[in-house]
Amino acid sequence: MDIKELYGHFLSSAGVSTDSRSIRGGELFIGLKGENFDGGDYALKALSDGAALAVVDSSSPAAASGDPRIVAVPDTLETLRQLARYHREHSFVNGERLTVIGLTGTNGKTTTKNLITRVLSRKFHVTATEGNLNNDIGVPLSLLKINPSTEIAVIEMGASHPGDIARLTEVAEPDYGLITNVGKAHLLGFGSFEGVKKAKGQLYDWILGHGKAVFVNVDDEVLKGMASERAGLETIPYGIDESGAIVLPSDPSHPFLRMAVPSEDGEKDGEETLLGIETHLVGSYNASNVMAAIAVGRYFGVSLEDAIAAVDEFVPENSRSQMMRCGSNTVIADAYNANPSSMAAALDNFSLVEASRKAVLLGDMRELGEDSLKEHEAVVKRLSAIPLDLVCLVGEEFGKAVEAVGPFQGMKLFKTSVELAGWLKENPLNDTVVLVKGSRGIQMEKSIEALSR
Q1: Per-residue pLDDT for 453 more than 80?
Q2: Which of 274, 283, 316, 357 is 20 to 30 A from 144 (CA-CA)?
Q3: Reduced to 3 states, what is the DSSP secondary structure of residue 217?
Q4: What is the mean predicted confidence (pLDDT) over 88-101?
Q5: Has residue 271 got a pLDDT over 90?
Q6: Lowest-pLDDT range of 73-82, 151-160, 313-322
Q7: How many C-beta neighbours within 10 Å does residue 139 have?
Q8: pLDDT in tens, 376-418
Q9: Residues 19-27: what's their mean pLDDT?
């Protein structure tokens, strides 16, 4: 069965599923195969649960079952990619090919994607990446969510190895691109900061060769340089300084990011009119993400007032720049991910927070390769210079860094987040502002519950 024929089955199906447990009836099940699993093993179960068709690897036992509802292919992941690309290429709005915005970056890409989606939704029916499904599987599944009512799509693309973004752009075929920033992350996979730049820059490369334009934060010298290196690349500039926006100071009565941006009406009575933005985001480092969303919205015809209203209404989730009350404590939960650049931004922001008692709970930063010890040492040194009542560090890498740099007053080491949670239950914090951050694998969110006691 070729992709065109398979696409016909997709159009009459209830959507695509790669998890047999999610079958509700009428889906096209694709049994992905990996090194240690074969989704084809669950194909017959998926069909018995109501799937309309099951696509399996030709080496899967299910391929020899004789069931006419089973389609055997050489590579199920490649078939998923081809199906998603075919769907993207055959999605139109008023006779014009559907506009797709591709987004990547080291930090803030999911928050920025969510903000852009909220802003664009003021004018369009938007299909966007759900959660952070931004890899070889997530991007195709996101594209396959495009439906007849979709007027614009926002697709997040993640990368941890060279070539990841190039491969994802070949599936999503974005018309516009946006890189939030380029920092030190996944150095184990990329090898160096220059490797990160090259990998993320593959989004710019695709737009230069096949798309229309990229949105560039011209306040960021790295991004501005990457764009200027690609002669002929059409750019749409944005930025805090670029637009004349102002980041307003935070305090206990205004803990979230606040900004003011120039009105489109220009000056009034000789003075520039500013419009306020009251977000539910923690940290001034989110200001550039807000400006990105406003820039994309304005380019596509969303009024500035509507864009600001959409940003004001957005509430983050999944431990991404969240602020919450835990008993008598105020917790800044940024525990979904961590790398040197995001860790530095979070600590810089936290150092400006006014509070009678402050504590930091940090977990290891993963996938830094040979730079891991150096980067964890830098964090420990930074912490020692910030007035804090308590510093709890979790993980083997922080343990090595403390051994190299030396401990300081108020610092405690833990092997796991579970061990930290147990200590917090026995030594409860009260009336404290707490920053919780770490790589996803450290599961620092397990310590948050203990802060409620």
Answers
A1: no
A2: 316
A3: strand
A4: 97
A5: no
A6: 313-322
A7: 25
A8: 999 999 999 999 999 999 999 999 999 999 999 999 999 999 9
A9: 95
Distance from first CA to last CA of the chain, Å, rounded?
Answer: 59
User: In Å, how far from its chain's centre is CA 244?
Assistant: 27
Q: Does domain 91-313 have CATH number 3.40.1190.10?
A: yes
Share of the chain above pLDDT 90, in %: 76
Better-scored residue on pLDDT, 194 or 260:
260
CATH of 322-452, one of 3.30.43.10, 2.60.210.10, 3.90.190.20, 3.40.50.1380: 3.90.190.20
Provide the edge-to-edge strand list for the sheet that holds 322-326.
322-326, 329-334, 433-437, 358-363, 390-394, 411-414
Contact 213, 234 (CB under 8 A): yes
Interval 175-204: pLDDT, tens: 999 999 998 766 677 778 888 899 999 999
Distance CA 139, CA 120 (A): 20
Q: Please name the residue that has the structure tokens 């997040």.
A: 156
The SS3 call for residue 342 is: helix
Burial class (CB in 10 A: 0-12, 13-18, 19+), 215: buried
- Burial (CB < 10 A; 0-12, 13-18, 19+), residue 412, is middle
What pTM value is reported for the model? 0.85
State the amino acid at position 310 in one-letter form.
A
CATH homologous superfamily, domain 3-83: MurE/MurF, N-terminal domain (3.40.1390.10)
CB atoms within 10 A of CB 237: 15
Q: Is-contact 349 453, C-beta < 8 A?
A: no
CA dihedral 51, 55, 58, 62 (to 10 degrees): -10
At 397 the three-state DSSP class reads helix
Listing DSSP states for 99-157 in one string gives EEEEEE-SSSHHHHHHHHHHHHTTTS-EEE--TT--STTHHHHHHTT--TT--EEEEE-
Q: What is the pLDDT of residue 159?
A: 85
Per-residue tokens: 264 = 């489109």
SS3 261: strand
Please determine, for residue 269, whether its predicted confidence score (pLDDT) is greater than 60: no
